[in-house]
Amino acid sequence: MAIEHYISDLLYRYNCVVVPNFGAFLTQKTAARINDTTNTFFAPSKSIAFNEQLITNDGLLVSHIAQLEKITFETALLKIEGITKKWSQKLNAGEKLNIPRIGMLWTNTENKVQFQPSTDVNYLTSSFGLSSFNAIPVTREVLKEEVVALEEDIPFIISPEKRETTSFRPYLKYAAILLLALSTGLTAYRFYEKSSINEQIVRQDAQKEVTKQIQEATFFNTAPLELPKVTIDATASVAKNSARHHIVAGAFRIKANADRKIAALQQKGYNAAYYGTNAYGLHMVTYDRHSNAQEALNALREIKKTQSPDAWLLSEK
């Protein structure tokens, strides 16, 4: 079973695809750009990164393979672990691991995993069919030719100017220069003041957007991070039973927001509860919890369709 095809399919739709016990491939949208040296235009795309710290199974890849291969969740997980074990052995042996349509992995002298993304595929669906192209610079010589022709027909004759000793022209020239300098300085100051005000407004808007993103607990970071295990609060309302699969609705910086989310989900008929706080101090809220993995996956698919596509599965070992 070639799991790289399934990983590639999921990268079109999701920003993070976790390969259990191996790592995670993450994508981030990059804007269109131009190479000034080669005059090459590139369409908007998704850049791929690899994080070897994200190894906890979130159920996305396993459930996708189980559904397409028509096998059980546990069987798909065993097949994936068998393949990733061979991948890890190859990297530990100092060999390069080439994953088609995704990129190449290898370890450096410090035994750190390095990743070079593939440029063959653009995973941004909105840029489908758009490829890079080179533009030829355009040199316009029309104006130069007209000036040369004009000089040939009407020669320019420069005659010396007769200056009067009592003329005020030198003083007018200096006054004009001084007036021009004052006007330029005033214009520059107004432009600087306007730019400073605009910059302050942009920073305030950016701060508001960052606060909103933190409240909604939407994270994306391509740099490898040390992600410790989630710490369960002693006052958490999650029952200490055999339920190991939790469907997470979101995480909130303020506890009151988490409580309001729980009340709203309970009004919709869900067995919502407070899970605890994670390593970032965010309060996690769950839709429900299950002891059976297949039941949890079925409930997760239904919630993604009817409630929120951002819901995800947290499975405890």
Topology:
Layout: H1 3-11, E1 16-19, E2 23-30, E3 33-35, E4 40-42, E5 45-51, H2 60-69, H3 73-92, E6 97-99, E7 103-107, E8 113-117, E9 133-134, H4 142-153, H5 169-216, E10 245-252, H6 255-267, E11 273-277, E12 283-290, H7 293-306, E13 312-315
Antiparallel strand pairs: 1-2, 2-5, 3-4, 4-9, 6-7, 7-8, 10-12, 10-13, 11-12
Helix pairs in contact: 2-3
- The 3D shape can be described as extended
- Amino- and carboxy-terminal Cα gap: 26 Å
User: How much helicity do the residues have?
Assistant: 25-40%
Low-confidence stretches: 217-240
Secondary-structure-based class equals: alpha+beta
Across the major sheet, the strand order is 11-12-10-13
Total strands: the figure is 13
Give the key terms.
single chain; 317 residues; extended; 2 domains; 13 strands; 21% strand; 4-stranded antiparallel sheet; alpha+beta; 7 helices
Give a short summary of the structure.
With about 325 residues, the protein is α+β, with helices and mostly antiparallel strands. The protein is built from seven helices and 13 strands.
